[in-house]
Every structure is written in structure tokens, then in C-alpha cells.
Amino acid sequence: MKRIYDELILRHFGENRQMLFLMGPRQVGKTTTAEQGAGEFARHFYLNWDNQADRESILLGPDEVAGVMGLDQFREEPPLLVLDEVHKYRRWKNFMKGFFDTYADAARVLVTGSARLDVFQAGGDSLMGRYFPYRHHPLSVAELLDTSLPDEPLRREPGVIGRDRFEALWRFGGFPEPLLRQNTRFYNRWRRTRSMQLFHEEFRDLTRIQELGQVEMLAELVRRRAGQLISYTSLARSIQASVDSVRRWLKSLEMLYYCFAVRPWHKNISRALRKEPKYFLWDWSLAEDPGSRAENLVACALLKAVHFWTDYGFGNFGLHFIRDKQKHEVDFLVSRDDNPWLLVEVKLAASAKLSPNLSYFQAQSGARHALQVAFDTEPVERDCFEATRPVIVPAPTFLAQLV
Fold first, then answer.
1. Fold classification of 4-135 (topology level)
2. Nearest to 276 by CA among 219, 238, 306, 233
3. Kind and range of the H or E element at 45?
4. Of 139, 188, 283, 391, which residue is the least packed, with the fewest Cβ within 10 Å?
5. 0.85 cut: is pTM over it?
């Protein structure tokens, strides 16, 4: 199926010489996106670190790969080199730096990986200025409706998603294969297999963590407490580990796209909470409680949006929540260029009273928009960001205006 990232690849290489790093969870569609993008080039080459023959070429160095690609011959159009999972190579940064510095004008380079290529500390020289990162997310309401690249962050003319498609997204999550199949037995097997791959393959290959049993217990606690304030001390006590170990293991779970942290916003907020984060799951279908799943789905949609808007160059966006010591709280705050821009409160029912905390924190933060997102309301074909005062909006409409 067509993804917004397909056009993103073509736009990137049409405008930039830098390498493109495409990062995201396993089975989110990175390889398919890379293959579709490569198909637009007259010549392309695909090397996978997990393939023995391809690994040998990479280990022999940039000149060997350049020879395989025939870069010693001047051609009308530079070919595309796709490197998959190359971050598993201990010296991958040295390899990429050497290849780019020598062959930047002769080839275009697309690197994909299921660990965070921008922060994965595997040694090697800095790649600063030699690549642009793009973070590949699961499918969302907005992407199911429109895969064109936006001209501004918000889509001002939201489409309307059908109830069946919205319910499938709610039930099966946004990873392409289970969402497209919409088969419960397949989804259950896919979910179990993906969990085994994460904890028994990726952790083993990419970290030095030996206590996999405790890490799995930690992941289960994060799943059960998705969207709640996290106490590192409480987690450590529950799995019989040190607080430092819990912090380190959570960072590894984030690196491997199992979960992500949302941290409190405190600038210009009186007596704001500063330390305890909340954790959400990349696969919101793992959250069993309906309220938790609704909040996690919105968290994923907002994270996808702030990542895309930042990666695409619209500005520097961030995702936070806001809470003070009097326990006034709003589920999410989106910052734009380090200033509060959007407040979002999530409710299952439109009948829920408009939260007074939206007005309370909008006055303190100066955020332009303050929206309460309701999941049981039919979508409307109207720009909900016209409002600058707190209002209740349908979840499908709000989500359709993101990415």
C-alpha cells in the first residue's frame, strides 16, 4: 500500500545529497518503503547486513561496495544504495562516513534500521551533516486518508474516515500487516512472534543486557501502566532490580521502539511537575483498558506528527504532558520551537464535561489551541484548529488533521 514515506524519499533525494536514515520499529514497513523508493531509480542496490554475502561486501569497505555498484563509471543518474540493518555492524558509522565522503556525488544512500540510528552508540566517527533522519511510524488516521506531503503541519481540510476503518485501527493497531489482514487469529500470532523477536533476538543482538527475564517483566509493567506516571523506584522494587538498571533497560526498550517516554512540561507553569515521565507503547493495541488505549492511540498520533514535522523541516516540535503539584493535569502539550502550541485532553465520551484544566493551563502556557478529543463522536468535515478556546472535538476529525 502507498505510504506517506514513499513520496518523502523521492522528495528528499530530489532536493538533498545527504544520506537518508529511515528509522522505526520492526515490521512497520521500512523495507517496503525502501523498495518502492528504490524502484523509482534507474539503478539501485540493496545490501542487508543479515545476508552473509552482503555482509562480506560491507566488511571489505566502501571501495568494495562502490565496485559492486559500478561507481567507477560516469552515468547520467546516480544509483541508489539501500543498506538495511547496517547499524548491527560495530563500525557502521566509520563505514558510512567513508562511503559518503568519497562517493557522495556518485550515489545516493538510504539506510534503514529498527534501532535508533541517530542515537545508537556503536562507536565510530560523527556523521553530523552527512544525513537527515526520518522516523517511520505505524499507520494513522491521517495517513489512511491522505499520503501526500503536506505544505504546513496541519491538514486544514480533514477527510472523514469510515467507522469500520477507525474501529480496525483501534482494535489491530497501526502496523500494516495485522491492520490490513484484520484477522484476530493472525493478529494474536503476529503479536506473539513480534514479542519473541524483540526480546530474544534484538535485545540479544543490540545490547549487552543479560537479564532478559527481568526486562520482559519490566516491559509487561510498562504495558499495564501505559499513560500513567512512572516511578523508577516502584518499578525497580517490582522486578527486584536496581533503579539504575530500570532506567538503562527502559532506554533500551525505547531504542528498540517498544515504548516511548513523554516528559512533563514545566516552563512558565506554577509548581509544575518536573521529573516523573509517562510511558506509552508504539503499538497501542497492546493497551487493554479502553481509556488507556484511547490515550495511547492519541499519544502515537501526536508523536508521529511531531517527528514528521521536525524531520521534514517545519520546525522543532516536542511532545509533553502538563501537571502541577495541585494535580491539575492535561494529557498532552505539543511545543513548537520550544513554545507551547497545542493542549490535548483525551476522553472516551463526548458527554464528559469539558476539562477546566484546559483553560487553566492555556492561560498559563499561552498555547494557541486547547482541544478535548472525544472518541464516541462522529467526525465532521471542519478544521477543528479554527478554535483558539477550549472545545470538544471528535477524535477522528482531530486525528485526520495530523500526519
1. Rossmann fold (3.40.50)
2. 233
3. strand 44-48
4. 188
5. yes
The backbone torsions φ and ψ at residue 71, rounded to the nearest 5 degrees and listed phi first, read -75, -5
Q: Which residues touch 222 (CB under 8 Å, ≥6 apart)?
A: 230, 250, 253, 258, 259, 279, 281
pLDDT digits (tens, 9 = 90+) for 127-161: 889 999 999 999 999 999 999 999 999 999 999 99
Distance set, CA 192 to CA 195, 300, 304 (Å): 5, 21, 24
Output b/e per residue, 185-195; b: 16+ Cβ within 10 A.
Answer: eebeebbeebb
Portions of the chain given CATH number 3.40.50.300: 4-135
Instruction: Give all strands (DSSP E) within 282-390, no chain letters.
Output: 317-323, 329-336, 339-347, 369-374
> What amino acid is encoded at 301 in this protein?
A
Classify residue 13 as exposed, middle or buried by CB count within 10 Å of its CB (0-12, 13-18, 19+). Answer: buried
Read off the pLDDT of residues 225-238 as tens digits, 9 standing for 90 and up. Answer: 999 999 999 999 99
Q: List, as own/partner pairs, every contact residues 58-64 make where C-beta atoms lie below 8 angstroms and the sequence separation is at least 24, other chains included.
A: 58/83, 58/86, 58/89, 58/95, 59/89, 61/95, 61/98, 62/95, 62/98, 62/99, 62/102, 62/103, 63/102
Using CA atoms, how far residue 308 sits from 130, 131, 153, 173, 223, in Å, is 19, 16, 9, 19, 25
Q: What is the pLDDT of residue 124?
A: 47
